[in-house]
Amino acid sequence: ILSGADVRTGLDSAVLQQAVLDHLYYSLGRLPAVATPANYYRALALAIRDRLQQRWIRTSETYFERGRKLACYLSAEFLLGPHLGNNLLNLGLEQAAREALTALGQDLDAILDCEPEPGLGNGGLGRLAACYLDSLATLQYPAIGYGIRYEFGIFAQEIRDGWQTERTDKWLSGGNPWEIAKPDIAYEVKWGGHTERYIDDDGAERRRWVPYRVVRGIAYDTPIQGYGVDTCNTLRLWSAEAAESFDFQAFNTGDYFQAVDAKLRSETITKVLYPNDEPAIGKRLRLAQQYFFVTCSLQDMLRILDLAGGAIEQFAEHFAVQLNDTHPSIGVAELMRLLIDERGLDWDAAWTITVATFGYTNHTLLPEALETWPLPLFREVLPRHLEIIYEINRRFLDEVRACFPDDSARVARMSLIGEAGEKQVRMAHLACVGSHAINGVAALHSELLKASVLSDFHALWPERFSNKTNGVTPRRFLALANPGLRALLDETLGASWPVDLGRLRELESHIDDPAFRERWRAVKHANKQRLADYVQAHTGIVLDPDWLFDIQVKRIHEYKRQHLNLLHIVTLYQRLKTYPAFSFPPRAFLFGGKAAPGYFTAKRIIKLINAVAETINADPEVNGRLKVAFVPNFSVKNAQLIYPAADLSEQISTAGKEASGTGNMKFMLNGALTIGTLDGANVEMRDEVGAENFFLFGRTADEVARLQGEGYRPADYLAGDDELKAVMELIGSGHFSGGDSEVFRPLVENLTQSDPFLVLADYAAYVACQEGVSAAWADQEQWTRMSIINCARGGKFSSDRAIAEYAREIWGLQSVPIQV
Ligand SMILES: CCc1ccc([C@H](C)CC(=O)N[C@@H]2O[C@H](CO)[C@@H](O)[C@H](O)[C@H]2O)cc1
């Protein structure tokens, strides 16, 4: 007879089976006979959450008892991906769950597929935050992720007639078993209004904020379970609701809309994720979202400090707050407001605490992505913060003048307020001034940061700057996504590699074993078959897993140069059409990625990919060697099918534009070879694997800057390259669009007239490099060796290595082992 406790905490399949049945019955009111796979998903999710609960509470208790420093990761995005599979892996319950479900006549993979993906992010920045939470828990660091509980996440992408269309992402419609609402953890969030001077009880002159509106922020907690440990940290996402959700007076007067007006307005704050990554959007609601989650998070830290009986002066010893780009950087002014206006500290004491508390990570060099807010908007919605920012700026510029006398140009460049044209608050400057640590996300990026956008700050505070090269979690993106390789690694290396990724190096001692290489290829082939089945099911396109799988998946953006990849494909197509004897190893080109809804050039690139795909796949003269597919709705869920199935990973951004990239690392760890430029983390990946195991091409960041400095003329490259010229003309002619030469004209003109990302300048080198890839592929044994080496040398790119660096060098964090 199972005790109550067992059913909630037992880890073997029999107990799990009972737990699923119990939740079906007591939580869902369903009898097995009529339960759907979605019901079983939910029942299993609740059963697993019970097992997390035990660890979750133990973890929070221990942190409270031990009173150790907490890392607080503030991010407007957390691209978590489906929870169930990852939690089963981290708890070591996959086998037990699979057996329990089999006994109930269910298939675990089908059940896993029922989970809606919490798409609370756009791309790299959001996914990095999720990987970092997994590493913080696995390395047993006390940490809280703070963010926004968007009711609607990143849109679902559907391709209609080759064009991207967006569908609302109703991820919460079936409820979310992985969150626990904490209505008792709620904070007031002021908005708008004005400030006024007053004399406090000790006769001191003080300022206070009289808001125009107040909304409430409610906490929703999600467990973040570590791998192979009992640590279960918290992701606390804030949801907005009206301070007063129903205005009875208005109702009594029959003004029903007014009665619910406050409720509707307030809830809009956390209604939807802004689907843009890179171009900053100066929208008021975006600022509201940023301020909302930041003030709730900082007020929550103050409550935790009070509960622990800590003195306010010790705030920075209790909390290391990391700003994930500038999106939460209003936090610098907000902590000052809370410390001065609400806790009565004087300016200097408050400022010392603030700088000691914050660290700022920059994720992009693109000028259009650096957030600035128009002064009038800022003053209207955050009047007290503007006062505080002015005072921060006054003292800061005094420091600049002291260090760099008679350099008014520098003062103007560094000011928190941009005066050119409409006055703007420069959020990156606020983040730098208010943080004791500033870092980029790859070695090249951190150097470029110091040499360009933040060079003045580096000149003033070189000691604040460091590099923290990104990483990815080997749990989700290797052990979970690639069960075939996982089994081979477990057998070859033992089971510790998921938490000690450096051990992958030992694979190199098996490289000359033909049987090992055979097994290595078999794992890859099975993953390619699995992806081919998925692509056929979602696009109707049939791919042959014996072909070379050449994959580019990431957000669609001109600097990521999906259109350069397309020019190579059209080149191969043209060569085949012109010289039927022309041969190369058959290749399947796969694309995936969302375009920001308002980014029309990116949407046109998606249309061109689908147009080229349609033409090639339907052409018997070429589809025996070439196939192209656009995988719709790229997400964490299908990414787990895509990364393990690649032979070649496309990382072809214009050098100096991709801060790091993280998809590049996921492909490498899954044994794909990379064709890429010396950009972002590609540089360090190539250093790890050796030049001979990396397909490099293109101009370096310096060469790009020089060429653009000298005045780049794309037409020169057209004139000098007949094949390129023919390719551009073919695209412009309407050949891929049923003779309609208008649809791709803007793209062709963009490339031939301005080409801001040097696509034409790198074309010839890219095509030549791709010929090298085809040549290398012809020697499968050699290719397999290179594939093994890419995986074996991927240890550095574990998010565990990155988090250990943040903990040691920025946060001063100690790990706290947890025992249930
Ligand atoms: C305000 C709109 C907005 C939204 C998101 C962003 C992000 C910074 C964009 C982003 O995701 N950047 C990516 O961050 C990854 C994690 O560090 C890097 O690996 C990618 O190179 C970088 O493009 C900028 C501007």
UniProtKB/TrEMBL annotation:
Belongs to the glycogen phosphorylase family. The modification N6-(pyridoxal phosphate)lysine is found at K666. InterPro entries: Glycg_phsphrylas, Glyco_trans_35, Pyridoxal_P_attach_site. This is Alpha-1,4 glucan phosphorylase. GO terms for biological process: glycogen catabolic process. The keyword Glycosyltransferase applies. It comes from Thiocystis violascens (strain ATCC 17096 / DSM 198 / 6111). It catalyses: [(1->4)-alpha-D-glucosyl](n) + phosphate = [(1->4)-alpha-D-glucosyl](n-1) + alpha-D-glucose 1-phosphate. GO terms for cellular component: cytoplasm. Keywords: Carbohydrate metabolism, Glycogen metabolism, Glycosyltransferase, Pyridoxal phosphate, Transferase. Phosphorylase is an important allosteric enzyme in carbohydrate metabolism. Enzymes from different sources differ in their regulatory mechanisms and in their natural substrates. However, all known phosphorylases share catalytic and structural properties. GO terms for molecular function: glycogen phosphorylase activity; pyridoxal phosphate binding. Its EC number is 2.4.1.1. It is an enzyme of class 2 (transferase). It comes from the Bacteria. It holds the Pfam family Phosphorylase. The lineage of its organism: Bacteria, Pseudomonadati, Pseudomonadota, Gammaproteobacteria, Chromatiales. The keyword Cytoplasm does not apply. Its cofactor is pyridoxal 5'-phosphate.
